């Protein structure tokens, strides 16, 4: 039987099964029996779906039983292990690295005894990061006995205190990227402090707000000479790329699956950074010249973004990938990267933020503005991608055919003029025939032109589609953190939480906020550089192209001067 209810808090839906509700909004509940902490009902706008049971109170007409409080149900209680809920494996979701047979089979040239990442595969979290089950294995010692994490010195907010206020409620949606990434645990002080943190990344205040401190040893890295190689006496083939970092000027050779291994380490570690996506994989035609050239171009852009990022460029695993040439040292470094403890939410412990005060509402407003900007940019990048792709198709097909038709028509005119020799003019006939051949040549020039301009534009747009696709989840982390600050402050004002605990939550929220703003700042800097370069290159190539077309037409025109 349907029941009336009232929303206690705001809830923003994250998928099509959920609906958003607003504080004090009247709701209709289809059944008061919750399923894993969720109720099904209808909001005041007529939308039907799920929302957290602890966010509502059911209104009853009988005295003394005016509502049912779900906020202390097992799924929402702090003592329940829902903070480490394991998302069921989704066969439709997998890490990048599952489509190209050549890149996923063996690792004999690296380490026979070790796979890429020896982890259970669950639904990926923020920016492709694994769920908290991979980041906090202590909560799963009965499930993954192979993990042996070091004992932590203390919890961030001194849980050993003899008296502690009410704990801020955990998100009931354990599939939320805020939960899966482990950032919720970090905000609530449940990420253990390590006895020693070897790596530190600094955020500074710049002219446009927080920014990552620049890499003190900047470098670039070239990607060259894709070469087909074989092993097992020619049974297996693969493409290797020559990488030459400028800081050591000594080349190393890496296969695509090695890039793929590094990419997954980056996703696993850097929760609040938009890691550039690798070029797409391809099941067939991996050794075709066009595909190899396309992958090389996109790996160059990917490498350029990696080396220009103040944090990613300093990552020990990335440096090891670029510099290590000794097989034994390579295996040791690879295992060290895979056993890195400062990953996911623990990565936030490595950040040193400025002491300057930032109003959290101002931060949220700035993030909201970036969210709107990134959505609009994503739409416009997709639009330009579609237009440019269609233009490539026309260059290769339609334009070439039309110019060929025009050229054939001109040559038909020339041939017809030969039909009556007494009145035939060989000079005119030859000029018209040459004009037809010229337009056939122009058609071929159009077909080849995308390799000089549109392909490079599409490479850049593809890179930014990947970067922009990361930001919704990263922004959601800050939104989730900000919601916890509001909730903790309300509980503190009501006397249900120690102010020190609320201050700790606010302090950790500042870390997330500063990191997101620094990443936003870096994105804008790269965007200006990349799109300036993209547009300049496109226009220059267009000018060169039409100059070549013009030269062909001018040469043909001169054949008519002395008739």
TrEMBL record:
SH3 domain mapped to chain residues: 1-61
Organism: Apteryx mantelli
Protein's recorded name: Sorting nexin
Domain PX: 219-329
Location (main, coarse): membrane
Location of this chain's protein in the cell: Cytoplasmic vesicle membrane
Family from the record: Belongs to the sorting nexin family.
Membrane topology: Peripheral membrane protein
Protein keywords: Cytoplasmic vesicle, Membrane, Protein transport, SH3 domain, Transport
Gene3D superfamilies noted in UniProt: Arfaptin homology (AH) domain/BAR domain, Phox-like domain, SH3 Domains
């Amino acid at each position: 039987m349907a029941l009336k209810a009232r929303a206690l808090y705001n809830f923003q839906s994250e998928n099509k099964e959920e609906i958003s509700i607003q504080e004090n909004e009247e709701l209709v509940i289809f059944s008061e029996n919750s399923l894993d902490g969720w109720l099904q009902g209808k909001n005041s706008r007529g939308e039907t779906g799920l929302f957290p049971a602890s966010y509502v109170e059911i209104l009853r007409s009988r005295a003394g039983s005016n509502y049912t409080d779900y906020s202390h149900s097992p799924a929402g209680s702090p003592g329940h292990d829902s903070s480490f809920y394991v998302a069921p494996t989704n066969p439709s979701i997998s890490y990048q690295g599952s489509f190209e047979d050549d890149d996923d089979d063996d690792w004999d040239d690296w380490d026979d005894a070790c796979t890429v990442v020896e982890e259970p595969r669950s639904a990926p979290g923020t920016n492709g990061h694994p769920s908290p089950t991979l980041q906090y294995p202590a909560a799963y010692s009965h499930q993954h006995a192979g993990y042996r994490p070091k004992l932590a010195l203390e919890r961030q907010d001194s849980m050993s205190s003899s008296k502690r206020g009410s704990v801020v409620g955990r998100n009931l949606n354990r599939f939320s990227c805020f939960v899966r990434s482990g950032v919720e645990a970090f905000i609530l002080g449940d990420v253990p402090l390590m006895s020693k943190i070897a790596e530190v990344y600094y955020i500074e205040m710049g002219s446009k707000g927080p920014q990552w401190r620049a890499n003190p040893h900047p470098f670039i890295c070239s990607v060259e000479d894709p070469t087909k190689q074989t092993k097992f006496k020619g049974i297996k083939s693969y493409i290797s790329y020559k990488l030459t970092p400028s800081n050591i000027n000594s080349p190393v050779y890496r296969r695509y699956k090695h890039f793929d291994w590094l990419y997954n380490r980056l996703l696993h570690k850097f929760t609040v950074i938009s890691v550039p996506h690798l070029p797409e994989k391809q099941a067939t035609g991996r050794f075709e010249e066009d595909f190899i050239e396309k992958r090389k171009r996109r790996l160059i852009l990917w490498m350029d973004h990696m080396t220009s990022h103040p944090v990613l460029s300093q990552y020990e695993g990335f440096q090891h990938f670029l510099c290590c040439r000794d097989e034994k040292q390579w295996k040791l470094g690879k295992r060290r990267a895979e056993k890195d403890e400062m990953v996911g939410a623990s990565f936030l412990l490595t950040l040193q933020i400025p002491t300057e005060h930032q109003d959290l509402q101002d931060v949220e407003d700035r993030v909201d503005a970036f969210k709107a900007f990134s959505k609009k940019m994503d739409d416009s990048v997709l639009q330009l991608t579609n237009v440019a792709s269609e233009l490539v198709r026309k260059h290769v097909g339609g334009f070439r055919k039309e110019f060929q038709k025009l050229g054939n028509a001109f040559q038909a005119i020339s041939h017809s003029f030969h039909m009556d020799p007494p009145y035939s003019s060989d000079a005119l006939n030859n000029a018209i025939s040459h004009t037809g051949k010229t337009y056939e040549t122009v058609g071929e020039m159009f077909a080849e032109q995308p390799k000089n301009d549109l392909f490079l534009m599409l490479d850049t747009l593809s890179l930014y589609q990947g970067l922009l696709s990361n930001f919704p989840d990263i922004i959601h982390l800050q939104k989730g953190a900000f919601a916890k600050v509001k909730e903790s402050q309300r509980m503190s004002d009501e006397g249900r939480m120690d102010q020190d605990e609320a201050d700790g939550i606010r302090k950790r929220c500042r870390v997330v906020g500063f990191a997101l703003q620094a990443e936003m700042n870096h994105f804008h800097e790269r965007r200006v550089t990349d799109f300036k370069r993209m547009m300049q290159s496109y226009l220059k190539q267009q000018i060169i192209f039409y100059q070549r077309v013009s030269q062909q037409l001018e040469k043909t025109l001169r054949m008519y001067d002395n008739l």
